[in-house]
Amino acid sequence: MVRLVPGVVLCAGIAAAASAVQAAEEHVFDHPYVEALVIAILIGIAVRSSWDPGPAWRAGIAFSAKQLLEVAVVLLGASISLGAILGSGPALLTGIVVTVALALGASYALGRLLGLPARISVLIACGNAICGNSAIAAVAPVIGAKGDEIASSIAFTAILGVLMVLGLPLLIPLLAFTPAQYGVLAGLTVYAVPQVLAATVPVSLVSTQIGTVVKLVRVLLLGPVILILSLLAPRLRQDGAAATARPGFSRLVPWFIIGFLALAAARSLGLVPDIAVKPLTRTASLLTVVSMAALGLGVDVRVVARVGGRVTLAVIASLAVLLAIAVALVLAVV
């Protein structure tokens, strides 16, 4: 435990700085356009570019990047409630599930067609289809993604996430959308919940309410996706190669996935009191930021630069496909 202290403290310091920057954004703009976990990665990369942490720091950095991130995934289960899913209505709920499924498949296929490894293609697909950076951070330990792969996925997804917030309202006059239709579109396409608020609050209260509900249902699909990916993890960890032996149950379903599902079930059954949900979710968010700082400290910018062009193209193409699917759903259902 003593060996972990220097590295964990370093990551926590970077996370604190990133959180302070996000707080400043919220104070100035009311909503954070660049989230703390993205800022933490960028600060970590900047530190690593000028200083390579020695052996005294590495154990704590590795612990923060892996174990703390796994704990954060478990705690995310407290934010899952089946009631939110059932309250959305069958038609819209089906549409959200279909949209996420199609976006996942199309994004993954685009990544592979562009020559990206299987793991980074999965990260981009999950970030694009579900909830951006949070989905990437949650899926990464399940498929054994490397720090460079995670940082690349989050960096380019974050940039497009901000552009979506700024550009999505321009589609209202172009497509003659009502506030309700725009709310569904924002909930289906914008990556993070705070970004949904930023994209809908200036439009109307109806857009904000509908967009938030749709977005939350979309986020809830992260649980089933993580469970499916945990079953496919042996192949993904070998980048598509066939597994040489049948893995045990603990390899198929890692402990933190079991914890995530257990906490989600407890939340849905009312065993987790409402008063505890916010602290648990907040703790998960803080641990994720610390983990992202650790990942940033482990990133070799030269590796990121080598895949930058293909990753950028994959993210842009995936977002275009998601927008097309979402627009079609809105026109057909809403």
UniProtKB/TrEMBL annotation:
> What are the record's GO terms for cellular component?
plasma membrane
Signal sequence extent: 1-23
Source domain of life is: Bacteria
Q: Per the UniProt record, which residue ranges are transmembrane?
A: 33-51, 63-85, 91-110, 122-144, 150-172, 184-206, 212-232, 252-272, 284-304, 311-333
Q: Where in the cell is it found?
A: Cell membrane
InterPro entries to which the protein is assigned, alphabetical: UPF0324_pro
Which UniProt keywords are listed?
A: Cell membrane, Membrane, Signal, Transmembrane, Transmembrane helix
What is this entry's stated membrane topology?
Multi-pass membrane protein
Write down the Pfam families for this protein, in alphabetical order. Cons_hypoth698 (PF03601)
Similarity annotation: Belongs to the UPF0324 family.
Quote the protein name from its UniProt record. Answer: Putative sulfate exporter family transporter
Native source organism of the sequence: Methylobacterium oryzihabitans
Q: What is the lineage of its organism?
A: Bacteria, Pseudomonadati, Pseudomonadota, Alphaproteobacteria, Hyphomicrobiales
